[in-house]
Amino acid sequence: MYTALHLQRQLKAELRSGAVEIVVVTPDPYMTYQPFLPEAAAGNISPRHVVVPLRRVLGRCKIVIGEVKAVDHAKRTATVATLATEEEAAGPIEVDYDELVLAPGSVSRTLPVPGLAEHGIGFKTVEEAIGLRNHVIEQMDIASSTRDPAIRDAALTFVFVGGGFAGVEALGELEDMARYTARYYHNIKPADLKWVLVEASDRILPEVGEEMGRYTVRELRARNIDVRLETRLESCVDRVAVLSDGTRFPTRTVVWTAGVKPAPLLAATGLPLNGRGRLKCTARLTVEGVEHAWAAGDAAAVPDVTASEPGRECAPNAQHAVRQAKVLADNLVASLHGKPPQEYAHKYAGSVASLGLHKGVAHIYGRKLKGYTAWFMHRTYHLSRIPTFNRKARVMAEWTLAGLFKREIVSLGSLEHPRAEFELAAGPPPPPPDNDVTADSSPDAHDTGSTRDTRDSKDKGGTGDVKNTGPATD
Hints:
Layout: H1 2-10, H2 12-17, E1 23-26, E2 30-32, H3 37-41, E3 51-53, H4 54-57, E4 62-72, E5 77-82, H5 83-88, E6 93-96, E7 100-102, E8 106-108, H6 116-119, E9 120-121, H7 126-145, H8 149-155, E10 157-161, H9 165-181, E11 194-198, H10 210-222, E12 225-228, E13 233-235, E14 240-243, E15 248-250, E16 253-256, E17 260-262, E18 279-280, E19 293-295, E20 300-301, H11 318-336, E21 350-356, E22 359-364, E23 367-370, H12 372-385, H13 389-404, H14 420-426, H15 435-439, H16 443-459
Parallel strand pairs: 1-4, 7-19, 9-16, 10-11, 10-16, 11-12, 18-20
Antiparallel strand pairs: 2-3, 4-5, 5-6, 8-17, 13-14, 14-15, 21-22, 22-23
C-alpha cells in the first residue's frame, strides 16, 4: 500500500495522461495495521479503525481484489484469481505488467502439532483478533453457566504459544480485558482465570533486549500468568494441551503466535529465494539478478547496510517495511526516468511493546523504559505511524472515550455466522411428535401439548396457527 501511495504521488502527470497505470492486486480491499491488533482484540479500538481502505487511499490506482496464483516474469504476466472469476467458473485471468513489485507479506508459521489445525486460533488478521475476543468472552459465559467443574476449568484456561510481540501483546491485552470483565460475572473471579504463555527459547521479546525480556517475565508472573520458557506445545488433541515438560491440562483456547513465514506465493514466482523462502534482494530493493522486479517487507531479504557484521538482513517488521516502501517507490520512479537508484539504509531504532492498559516495555536507541512511560511511548509511536489523518483521529477519539467510560465487554460471536439465525427460521419445521404416543395420551396431555407447540411456533417467528401444530388439530 505504501509503495503504491508514494508512486501515485510522484507520477501524477503520467497517471493523468495515461502513460502509467498502477495496478494493485490484493486479496483484501484494505491494509491491516497489525501493531493495533492486540488493542482491537481487547476492545480498545474498533476493528474498522485498524484497517485502511485501499480504494479511498489509492484513488489513482486500479484495485483488483484477488489472489496471484503464479508469476511468469519472463513473459511479464501474473495469473490472478478474482472473486468474479470464481463466480463465472472461468478460471484465473492473466495480467500483463512492465514492472513487478512483490510485497505479499507473511503468513503464520505452524508446526505439525497434533490437534493444532482443529483447535488452534491464529492472530495475524483483524478477523482473527475479533474472533479471539469473542471466543474469550464466550468461554467466560460457558464457565459461568456450567455445572461441570471440568468444563469450567477448560473454559477458563487460555494458552498462548509464542513469546514474540504478537503473543505477548495479545496475551497482555486480553488478560487485562478478561480480568476487568470478570467483575460482571457473579461466579467468576480474576483468580479463576488461568493464562499460560509457552515459549520454546529461554526468553521472550528478544527485540527489546534481555533485561527488558526478564522484566516482562516478572511483570506477567506478578499478574498470575504462567510463563513457561524452554517449553514446547507437543499436542492439543481433544482440547488437552500437552507440553514438553510433561504438563497436561484441558483448555478450550490455544492461540498460536509462534512466528511467521513468507507468503506461499513466492514459491510460484520462479524468482530466487533464500533458505528461509524470502526473495533475495539487493540493497536497492531489486530482486537479485532479475530486472524489472522489486520487493519489500516481510517477503524480501534485504541486506542491512548499516550492520557491522556482513551478511546481516533487515528484520521483517513494520519499521523496515514502511521505510523500504518509500525507497522502493523512489527507485522505481528513478528507473523510469533513467536515473540511478539509491540503497536502503536504516539503522534499527528499537522496539516498544504493550503489556496491557498502562503497562509496557521499550528499548529505544539504547534506552530501556518500562511501565506507564513505555506504554505511552508505544501508543504515541504507533499513532504517528498508522496511515491517514482519518485513522489517526478516529483512534485518538476512541482512546479518549475509553478513558472517560467503562470498557466494552460485549461478545458478538454471531458475526462469524451471520446467517445462522435466519437459516434456522427459514428451515423446515421440526417433525411432529409420534402419533402413537399422542393417541395413548390423555385429553389433558393433548391440551398441554397444544399450548406448548403454539408457544414454540410464536417464539420461532411463526404465526402460531394451531392448524400447523400437529397433534393440536385432534
